[in-house]
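Handout, section B. The chain below has 730 residues.
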Amino acid sequence: MDKDDVQLIQSVLSGDDEAFGILVQKYQKSVHALAWRKIGDFHYAEEITQDTFLQAYEKLPTLKNRDQFAGWLYVITNNLCTDWLRKKKPVMQSLGDASVKAIDKLTYERYILEQRETAATERRHEIVKQLLEKLPESERTVVTLYYLGEMTTKEIGKFLGVSVNTITSRLQRARERLQTSDEHLINETLGGWQLSGNLLENIMRQVADIKPVSPPTGKPVLPWMALGTATVLVLLLLGVSHQYLARFQRPYSFEAQSEPTIEIIETVVVLETDAKPDMRNQIGQAAVPGKNSSTGSQVSEEVLVPTASEDFPNLLTSNTAPKVTRFTLSNGIRVVNLHVENSTDVGIFSYLPLGLVTDGKAKAQWSHLVNYLTLQTAGPIDYKTSNAETMADNMRLDFMGNTDTWTQGLALHAKWLAGLPFSAESLADARLNVLSQIDYIEANLVTHKLAQIGWNQVCRHGETDIAMRKGIQSAQLSELQEYRDQHLVQADRVLLCVIGGVDPETLKETMETQLGTINLTEKTLPRSTVPPKIAKDQNATWDINVTHYMETYPIPNPENGDYPALYIASLLWRLACTQDAQLKELIGYIHCGVDLVTPEQVYLYVSASLKPGADIEKVKQRIGQLLNPLKQPANNTQVPMIAQSLSMELSVLPDMKTFMQQKPKNVPENLMFLQLGVSWGTIEYQYGDNLSQLASAFADVSAADVASVANRYLTEDHRMTLLLTPRASE
């Protein structure tokens, strides 16, 4: 019986180089197939194959999870291919440059025969490349590994880090796309290629001269990871605080039979605790109506239970944190790049200023419609790579890809930001999508975002009856396009966050070419249309069959010294509300935060959907009772720990290994990776140049500071309430 990889690696580390030769023989065709897929040249792919195994041998002691040796080779190979492509390809000497003396050594007939054979072989290779280019990236890789690498579906699955069923389905889909004659040509051409007989010999000869790198004996532990059991509380608090941190949505379904229409579920990190994950509506997230649904109201089950990503290899974590680089394009677009070594994943996220609480009067959810329509302007949404979401004060446009497709992602962002015309078909899809989300949110008592929309119309525009559904149905295409042109892409208010394995210099140059020519003009968001002194207690109706209660307190902006303490106060208040047994009997979902940001003011708020028949006065009273303890320093013993953790969160990115150790069960690594980009991009967008100052300020917050701001800002005099009740049946 052959030794498995773990046993072979142990033998190599014990000094048995012959065991490494067995590993080379086992994986050389796989590595060569991948290298050829990346660079398109069989001979140079052999050089990369050799370099891959030499690098693997040298770094083998650093491989922590030896079961992932195959995936580790994938990452090394991919990185070497990227480096090779980045450099100028060596110039191939043509036969026309050969000396006359060399040609004279051949008879004329033999020369002609070899020329014809070479030309025929090169032509077959070129045809095979063109056939493979017709396949999607994931299917192309599987076909190459299957025929050129001579791998089984099980071996391919281990190499790429995905399930055998997924590999089998990809191979089947590829065969269905190809004609029988095309598949035969691919099989004959790729299967007929043989590696050089001396490849193994060359590798083993050089291995004898290499001294493997010793693994590190230890590493510094980040302060926020040294908190031990207290980390559980911090992660819980962080999970229920920032609107993105520790938040694991599934932005698209990889293998769904029909595209998902709505994606509303998210969970928060509650490691080792009894608290249940929160369900929070994600209204404003773009998705594609299901093809098999006449109403578009399907919800893919894959949205509810995330599984391993099937279009990304497992992210092999490293001991280094992403390298942060910031730069500004010539037209004023700001960019923050999180460069992650040894990663083939790439996420690109645009942050724009139009959001749910900045919409104009009688234009509830127009920003949401604009978000979806903007995503559609580049063509039909590819739900595997494109996504969007509308938040309180911003919208985000996403591309999820890899180091092979990231330039296509930049091209999509360029189209999204360029103001392309909307279409009537896209508007019809958008309406269906939004209305489907409302139905789900209403049924599950997670009306937090809908309430923000209603709050904007009542408290900023003086509306008393909010047409959530009718407003969506009546919005006209020309009005929405004009609305987008007036408010979406504003000078000095566009940020792109890029995370992944793209070299920062290459990224900067390519972004300038693709995005630097977009015209950003001075624009303003829709301003408030009510007097500054609005009534203290507001009541309004809406066409949502849920009663919702909100309290808001005006607070200073992040540049003010009181902001960090208020932020922590909102965390503690929300934690108290979500864990309170009395409130659980009365409400569905409750949220508290400081992300209610309008052009005029920042607000701390608490927002709760009420269960049918719940006594609103009891809800108000209990929420107030849970706030009172924060006004006494003695009750805020957790504050120093939370403050230090938040300070670290805003100033230091974790190394990828530490970050992945926080991964909840059933959350795929690539999704964690992409969420890190979303999280950091959101922080950069919200706090910008004030980020470092704010991080320092958080570190100094004390229990007394939290009590002080609670007593000064979270008072009856400052409180504004809003009760949204269902409109009477028409």
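Note. DSSP finds 28 helices and twelve strands in the chain. Compare this with the example in section A.
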